[in-house]
User: What shape does this take?
Amino acid sequence: MLAPGTIGRAPVDRCVAGVSMKGVVFNLLEEVVIRHQDEDVWDELLERAGVAGAYTSLGSYSDEDMHKLLAAAAGLLGRPPREVLRWFGQQAMSVLAERYPSFFARCPSSRPFVLSVNSIIHPEVRKLYTGAHCPNFQFQDTDDGALMMDYRSPRKLCALAQGFVEGAAAHYGERVTFEHLECMHDGDARCLFRITWP
Ligand code: HEM
Assistant: This one.
């Protein structure tokens, strides 16, 4: 679990993609904010966002709460919400590597790690957190060695996916370039990423 069980507001438990998100993701955001800022900043974010906090890892909470927290953080940092989400994904990887070392230990570098998200990581997450709506990605190798990654989700959290990939590369001490060729936020049916390890 990413955070000690907290007793607070009752979870939403409407486990529909695009409506509820597992508390573990909120716990992760809290951990990242506290590591990089402090507890006062987390409390201020909760207040600015107008959310109650006290998320339990196994509970499910409104996606709206996450958007409100990201908007509050964006206001506080003076950065667009998408950049805050990407930063969150980047920084979250080191927390995840501490909490779930086996996902990382089985992969020698970030490319196989990213490729294990459909086959190992998210299936395991779905078992641990009932009602988790983790996306499935489609991967394809290109002739010039890049990895094409196709992302579709009603949540449109492509910036989080980008941050996770970049954070994974940083965890393995590697550089990665991430191109966003198609984006659901621009009206495309999917997000398409071209990832290269130079
Ligand atoms: C490069 C690796 C990874 C990528 C690209 C990735 C991507 C994503 C994205 C984009 C989402 C948002 C949900 C959506 O789009 O509908 C998500 C959800 C999630 N992921 Fe991953 N992920 C990765 C690794 C991990 C790892 C290592 C863990 C934890 C061990 C994890 C746990 C979760 C959880 C708990 C959710 C929330 C599901 C929910 O609340 O319904 N992911 N992931």
Notes: The longest helix spans residues 81-99. The chain has seven helices and six strands. Strands lie at 20-22, 60-62, 138-141, 147-151, 177-182, 191-196.
